[in-house]
Amino acid sequence: MLPSQRALFDIPREVCFLNAAAWSPLPLAVQEAGRIGVGRKGQPWKLDAKFIAEQHERARKAAAALIGAEPVDIALIPSVGYGVSTAGKVLDVPRASRVLVLENDHTSPVLEWMSRAAEGGFTVEPVAQPADGDWTAAVLEAMARRGAAPLALVSVSSVHWSDGGALDLPRLAAAARAQGAALLIDATHDAGVRRIDVRTLDPDFLIFPTYKWVLGPYGRAFMYVAKRHQNGVPLEQTAPARKGVSAEAKVYFRDLAYADGARRYDMGERDHFITLEMAAVGMEMMAGWGNDPIVERLSMLTDRLADGLANSGVRVLDRKLRAPHLLCLAFPKGMSDDLPQKLAAENVYAAPRLGRLRISPHVYNDEEDVDRFVEVFKRVAL
Question: How many CA atoms lie within 13 A of 135 on its CB side?
Fold first, then answer.
C-alpha cells in the first residue's frame, strides 16, 4: 500500500481536505514547475528551439502511460468537453439510432449528443440512476433492451461523480462491441487511480483532464483516439495538425495533408508550456506510484470512513459497487443545506452533490484525516 504522500503537498496539518474530486491541491513539485515555466515565459529568448515540442511529447507520453496507450494515440486538448465535441464531429451517429448516457452524468459526455440529436435524427437515452447503485447492470440492461432503436454510441463517465458508483468498463466495452456501438469514456474520475488499459478495452475515445485526480492544473486534458478514428477532421484547423505548414519553412503551405495519429486533433494554441509541464509532472508522479498501491491506500481510507460512519444515519453504496476513492453519503431524511459550511468552519472539506455529501480522499490524506472527519461530522451533522 502506498504510504501517505502528505509531505509532498502544501497542506497544513489542521486542514482536512477530502475534496479531490472537485480539484486537487498541486504537489510542491508541480507548483515549482509552474514557477519555473512562468520564468521561462518572462525570458522567452532563452528557450531552446526544440523545447516546446519536447514538452508536447513529454505530456503526451505521461498521459498515455496512465491508460496503457501509445503516445501517438493521444491528443492535447483543453477540456473533456472539447474532446467530446471532437468526437461528435468525427463519429457518425446514424438516424433512428440511440445514444446511451447516464442520468445526471456530467455535462461533457451528455450535452454534445443532446445538442446534435434533433438535427441528426437520433435519440439520447439516459440510463436512470439505479436504486441499488449498480450502474453497470443498469447500463447493460439498457443496452440489451428489446424493441429499442439500434445502439450507436455509449457515452458515459467511468465513475459517476454524484454517487461514486464505478462502472465495469471491460463488461461495457464487450457489450458495446457485440452491438457494433461506439464507446466514449469520460475518465475524469478514474484515470490515474483505477487501472485502465485501452489496448484491451478498445474504446473509441477516452478523455480525462488533469485538475482533479492526476494532480495538475486547469485547462489541460488528454484524449485517446482509437486508430480507426484517426482519419477524421479536427475541431480546429491549425498548422500543427497538418504535415507541412510551418512559418519557419521557405514555403508556408507545403503539405496540407493532416498529421498522422491523434496529433491532428490537438487544440489550437497548444504551446502552453507552463501548464503542460505542470500536467506532465503530476501525471508522472501518479504513474510512478502505480494504480494498485494507490487504490489500496484510497480503499483503506474510504473503508475506514464507511466503518466510522456506520450507524450514523447515512447510507453509502456497497463496497463492490463504489469507486475506491469516492464515498458519497446519502441522507434518508435529507442533507442539511449548511452542512458543508459547518464542516468547512472546522477546516474539514467535502462537497455537496445532488443531495449527497461526496468525500474524496487522495494520496495526501491519512488515517488522522479520516478520523477527524468522522468526529467533526458526527458533532455538526447529527
Answer: 28
